[in-house]
Amino acid sequence: LRSEVIYRDLQINGPNHVTLTLVAGGMQANVRVQNLRVRIRVRGHVAGINYDTEGWVTFTDVSVRAILDASLSGGRPRIRVRPGSVSTTVGDINTDFSGLDGAIIDIVVDLFNGTVRNLVAGLVRDFVTDNVNDVLDDVIGGLDISSLGTSFAVPRLDGPQTIPLTFGVGFSTLSTTSSRMLFGIGTRFFTPPMHARPTFGAPSRSGARFLDAGG
Hints:
Distance between the termini: 111 Å
Number of helices: 2
Radius of gyration: 33 Å
Oligomer: single chain
Shape: rod-shaped
Number of strands: 10
Order of helices and strands: EEEEEEEHHEEE
């Protein structure tokens, strides 16, 4: 058996379903894609017969399940695929090729249906494991509340000038259980350093005298 497969087109007809469920440490994602169709050209040699045909391969459904760990990095949420948590299943594979060559391809694909199914499942699993982290980081990493901070002009006690006082906010903690995802928000006040001045002493009423306890 010698065969070459050339990809031509892709159709995702659906309906498709995505659900997210909270679990300890993150979320469980369940993705189900239905009626996935790939148009391919197949040519090669089998049992002394040369073939060259083009048609559709339909996957009734492709399901992916993975756990996404949630954490904070640099004050921003981060979602990562938990190692070893990705599983995939592929439903039945149906083919539709034209002509006599198509009949031969239908037989070959039917005989190796389990092998092709496992191959697709492995490819999807590896794609999710190796590539989804970057996609999730691009989406979730943009969630930043630091822009909600503001600044105030506080009058000085020793003159008409003001002191800029900045109020900042940011995520401080993130905890996830099966019932809730809890974000902690930290705050801080910041002002630029000012020149220190010598103290004029403690305030007192005119004519008051302080006695030295040791004198």
